[in-house]
Amino acid sequence: MTSEERWVIAGLGNPGPWFTKTRHNAGFLVIDRLARRHGAEFRWYGTKCRLAEIDIDGRRVILVKPQWFINLSGNPVASVLRTYDVPVERLAVVHDDLAFRFGAVRIKRGGGAGGHNGVRSVTEALGTRHYTRLRFGLGRPPKGQQTGKYVLRKFPEPERSALPAVLDRCADAIEALVVRGLDKTQTELHSAPGAGEE
């Protein structure tokens, strides 16, 4: 199988049970949803990542959950790309984003980190911004609440009840990206009902 037929989808989050289902682990939650959807199990890749491999319409897709803390995600992601000989154009990074309301899902290629240290780490490790990002909207923290505390808290109700549908929307977008490409995925995702940024 050639590198042109492979994708790497990396979800950003923090390892360990304390961080499970916190807002900052939205990337991990999406990757877990994709793995369950395709009946895949994760295995260790050295001490850097947990990996699972799935097939999406004949494309081999490596799902990655870096096991260093989120601010150090870049080195593990870059290592997987090298090992599997996957070009950066076929990397998608899934991460939380405060710029969008909860439930909004956006996909783009390139752009700045927007204050997200995990994204910054990936960009620095790869030496380029030319990879795809699936952004999971969290919304801004309430006035007076520190951003760090906000993203490290678990999803509250009613967000917890809505979370499965949002994760499915993210998983659908990743599958569409792999099969139909970025432009068609952007059109479908961003024009869907309720896709507005506010």
TrEMBL record:
Gene3D superfamilies, per database record: Peptidyl-tRNA hydrolase
Family matches, as CDD domains: PTH
Alphabetical UniProt keywords: Cytoplasm, Hydrolase, RNA-binding, tRNA-binding
Enzyme Commission number(s): 3.1.1.29
SUPFAM superfamilies the UniProt entry points to: Peptidyl-tRNA hydrolase-like
InterPro entries: Pept_tRNA_hydro, Pept_tRNA_hydro_CS, Pept_tRNA_hydro_sf
Compartments reported by the entry: Cytoplasm
Reaction equations catalysed: an N-acyl-L-alpha-aminoacyl-tRNA + H2O = an N-acyl-L-amino acid + a tRNA + H(+)
A Pfam family reported for this protein in Swiss-Prot or TrEMBL: Pept_tRNA_hydro
GO terms assigned for molecular function: peptidyl-tRNA hydrolase activity
Active-site feature positions: 24
Binding positions (tRNA): 19, 69, 71, 117
Highest taxon of the lineage: Bacteria
Enzyme's top EC category: hydrolase
PROSITE patterns, sorted: PEPT_TRNA_HYDROL_1, PEPT_TRNA_HYDROL_2
Site (Stabilizes the basic form of H active site to accept a proton): 96
Residues under site feature: Discriminates between blocked and unblocked aminoacyl-tRNA: 14
Oligomeric and partner information: Monomer.
Function: Hydrolyzes ribosome-free peptidyl-tRNAs (with 1 or more amino acids incorporated), which drop off the ribosome during protein synthesis, or as a result of ribosome stalling.
Entry similarity comment: Belongs to the PTH family.
NCBIfam families (alphabetical): pth
Name of protein: Peptidyl-tRNA hydrolase
Organism: Streptomyces orinoci (Streptoverticillium orinoci)
Organism placement in taxonomy: Bacteria, Bacillati, Actinomycetota, Actinomycetes, Kitasatosporales
